[in-house]
């Protein structure tokens, strides 16, 4: 069916399985500063609101910890070098993007990951399939604010009325709502179906190819 003209995707947990690299970066920074490491399942629940919030949740005492700024910087420096160690697209993502591109659809990524990493990962894995990739920047509010979605629509020259948002978390559901567009929640990402239902999700897909039937 592919009834939409523009598809705006979250990145981590939606297009890319990046959890191991995020956890490794988090634990590297914690180790460097004498703090206890976090389990992969803890990190799974910490992600979704940007890497600063990830580290606020991982560091004891959060941003009030005297070592927070250094720990956060240690994460950023490590992750920019190691963001591709284990990260890869989920099965079926590349085929789905090829089908959308072949059908003349417009595609963008909006992420709460910092801008440089968002751009690098999207370019590395998806090349010219995704023309617009927007990450966290100082002059633009991060999700769930609609700013990054609005910027993506502007760069694409796309109409909001024929756009859909695809993500894996409660933040994505809120982002779609704040952006005035429908949300499709994926079931292969960082959150369970029950978690998504509890946070207002209404439309689900179990595989990337299922997006083509909506």
Task: Walk me through this protein's architecture.
The protein has 2 domains: 6-17 and 89-213, Rossmann fold (3-Layer(aba) Sandwich); 19-82, Orthogonal Bundle (DNA polymerase, domain 1). It contains 9 helices and 8 strands. The chain is α/β, with parallel strands linked by helices and 214 residues long. The N and C termini lie close together (6 Å). It has helices spanning 19-32, 40-46, 51-58, 68-82, 93-102, 115-126, 147-156, 170-178, 193-198; strands at 6-9, 16-17, 88-89, 106-114, 132-136, 163-167, 183-186, 204-205. Helix 3 (51-58) packs across helix 4 (68-82).
Descriptive keywords:
single chain, 214 residues, two-stranded antiparallel sheet, alpha/beta, 8 strands, DNA polymerase, domain 1, globular, 9 helices, Rossmann fold
List the helices and strands and how they pair.
Blueprint: E1 6-9, E2 16-17, H1 19-32, H2 40-46, H3 51-58, H4 68-82, E3 88-89, H5 93-102, E4 106-114, H6 115-126, E5 132-136, H7 147-156, E6 163-167, H8 170-178, E7 183-186, H9 193-198, E8 204-205
Parallel strand pairs: 1-4, 1-6, 4-5, 6-7, 7-8
Antiparallel strand pairs: 2-3
Helix pairs in contact: 1-4, 3-4
Family: Belongs to the HAD-like hydrolase superfamily. CbbY/CbbZ/Gph/YieH family.
Protein name: phosphoglycolate phosphatase
EC number: 3.1.3.18
Proportion of beta-strand residues: 15-25%
The description of the largest β-sheet is: 6 strands, parallel
Widest beta sheet: strand line-up: 5-4-1-6-7-8
Quickly count the helices: 9
Q: Can you name the CATH architecture of the largest domain?
A: 3-Layer(aba) Sandwich
Computed over alpha carbons, the radius of gyration is 17 Å
Summed up, the domain count is 2
Assembly classification:
single chain
Order of helices and strands: EEHHHHEHEHEHEHEHE
What is the strand tally? 8
Q: By CATH's scheme, which homologous superfamily of the largest domain applies? A: HAD superfamily/HAD-like
Please state the structural category.
alpha/beta
Distance between the termini: 6 Å
Low-pLDDT segments, ≥5 res = none
The CATH topology of the largest domain corresponds to Rossmann fold
Q: What's the CATH class label of the largest domain?
A: Alpha Beta
User: Tell me, what's the shape?
Assistant: globular
């Amino acid at each position: 069916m592919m009834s939409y003209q523009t598809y705006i995707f979250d990145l981590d947990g939606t297009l890319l399985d990046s959890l191991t690299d995020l956890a490794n970066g988090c634990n590297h920074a914690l180790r460097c500063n004498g703090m206890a490491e976090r389990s992969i399942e803890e990190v799974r629940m910490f992600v979704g609101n940007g890497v600063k919030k990830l580290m606020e949740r991982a560091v004891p005492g959060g941003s009030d910890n005297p070592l927070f700024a250094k720990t956060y910087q240690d994460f950023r420096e490590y992750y920019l070098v190691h963001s591709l160690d284990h990260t890869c697209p989920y099965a079926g993502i590349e085929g789905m993007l090829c089908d959308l591109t072949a059908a003349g659809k417009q595609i963008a990524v909006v992420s709460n990951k910092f801008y440089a990493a968002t751009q690098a990962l999207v370019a590395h894995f998806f090349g010219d399939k995704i023309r617009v990739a927007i990450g966290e920047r100082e002059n633009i509010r991060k999700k769930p604010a609609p700013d990054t979605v609005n910027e993506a629509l502007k760069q694409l020259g796309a109409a909001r009325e024929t756009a859909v948002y695809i993500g894996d978390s409660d933040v994505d559901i809120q982002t779609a709502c704040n952006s005035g567009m429908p949300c499709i929640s994926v079931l292969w990402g960082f959150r369970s179906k029950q978690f998504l239902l509890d946070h207002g999700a209404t439309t689900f897909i179990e595989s990337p190819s299922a997006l083509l039937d909506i």
